[in-house]
Amino acid sequence: MIVQGSQLPHFNELIETLKSKFSNYSVYTLGSESQKSIVVQKSSLIGAQITVRDQEINVDACCPNLFVSALIGFISAIFPPYAKFEMKIAGFLKKKYT
């Protein structure tokens, strides 16, 4: 899901906002310096990857555990718990930044 806005937060501000809002989940960065993403991890199987580009925030359901992710692959994007968690994160970001 893509969230578009005219005044999106800086990367570090977004991390702090997500840590504050989802304090019972793990929130951490992933990727290289030039292409960072934020992962909000609900469990070892369910998470959301957030990437900020230009005037949009891209939220994708993901499986934070690399081994399990390799096993279930694309199914995570359509499996109901993944989609629900993705929508929860995206819904919060839409309310906050649009």
State the helical fraction: 40-55%
Query: Roughly what fraction of the amino acids lie in strands?
Result: 25-35%
Ends distance:
14 Å
Main sheet: strand order = 1-5-4-3-2
The low-confidence parts are none
DSSP strand tally: 5
Explain what this protein looks like in three dimensions.
With 98 residues, this protein is an alpha+beta fold. Helix content is 41%, strand content 30%. It is built from four helices and five strands, in the order E-H-E-E-E-E-H-H-H. Strand 3 and strand 4 form a beta hairpin. The radius of gyration is 13 Å and the shape is globular. The chain starts with a strand and ends with a helix.
In short:
The protein is α+β, with helices and mostly antiparallel strands and 98 residues long. It has helices spanning 11-21, 66-72, 75-78, 80-97; strands at 2-4, 26-31, 36-41, 47-53, 56-62. The chain is built from 4 helices and 5 strands.
List keywords for this structure.
single chain; 98 residues; alpha+beta; five-stranded antiparallel sheet; globular
Topology:
Layout (H helix, E strand, L loop, with lengths): L1 E3 L6 H11 L4 E6 L4 E6 L5 E7 L2 E7 L3 H7 L2 H4 L1 H18 L1
Antiparallel strand pairs: 1-5, 2-3, 3-4, 4-5
